[in-house]
Amino acid sequence: MVSLFVLARHAQSTLNLEERVNGDPKVHVELTEEGVEQARRLQLQLAQLPIGLCVHTRFERTRQTAAIVLEGREVPLREEPLLDDIDVGRLDGWSYADYRAWKRAHTRRDRFPGGESLDQAAARYAQAFASLALVSSEVVLVVCHEIPLRYALNSTAGSDSLEAPVHDVPNATPFLFQTAAIERSSRTIERMAEGR
After folding, report:
1. 158-171, pLDDT tens digit by residue?
2. Domains and CATH numbers, the chain
3. List of residues 6+ apart from 78 with CB closer than 8 A
4. Half-sphere exposure of residue 116: CA atoms within 13 angstroms, side-chain side
5. Rounded to an integer, what is the distance from CA 18 to the centroid of its chain?
């Protein structure tokens, strides 16, 4: 069965507004007022789609976004830790600028202090997308984070980099993939994460 996957980054959170990173799902982060409005706009965009399953991460901002988008619908929810944001360890709460400076000074294989590496996270995302490709629902909504969505977009576009050409993914914006694209993304991300 060919499924339609609607992948969206969560709506704007308070940490997005503050330009700080968060890779720990135990840290409670709310949506902003603008984030709630973004989620409501996404709800309108997806209102006519027969969503049969919603996948979200362990982060509250993805659950809140999904709840707003699916308000009034009986849609099964599935939590998928493999799509969690990157575990940045002791960098949690750092500013975007400081986080990016750390990234520039290190390779994709270097682990964030007390966390995981970008390649380790990419391998997780590859595994998550492989699992998604097995879902038999007609339409699947996936509410996740910027980086797994960026990797999916770039890998299916045939890029030789997970970071380009798309780098900044807007909040609460739907991106559409069919099963074959999700499978291709999984294989490509896995290959790149292994340095092949």
Report:
1. 898 999 999 899 99
2. 4-193 (3.40.50.1240)
3. 53, 54, 55, 56
4. 16
5. 19
- Please give the structure tokens belonging to residue 141: 């909504």
Rounded to whole angstroms, how far apart are CA atoms 157 and 165?
9
- What is the reported pTM? 0.96
The pLDDT score that the predictor gives to residue 137 is: 94
Residues 73-113: pLDDT tens digits? 999 999 999 999 999 999 999 999 999 999 999 999 999 99
- Contact indicator for 5, 23 with CB cutoff of 8 Å: no
Vertex 116: Cα angle to 170 and 24 (nearest 5): 60
Q: How many helices (H) and strands (E) does the chain have?
A: 7, 5
**Whats the size of the chain, residue-wise?**
196
Query: Helix (H, G, I), strand (E, B), or coil: what is residue 72?
Result: coil
70 close to 52: Cβ distance less than 8 angstroms: no
129: three-class secondary structure by DSSP? helix
134, β-bridge pairs? none
Q: Residue 158: what are its φ and ψ, rounded to 5°? A: 85, 15
What are the φ/ψ torsions at residue 58 (nearest 5 degrees)?
Answer: -80, -5
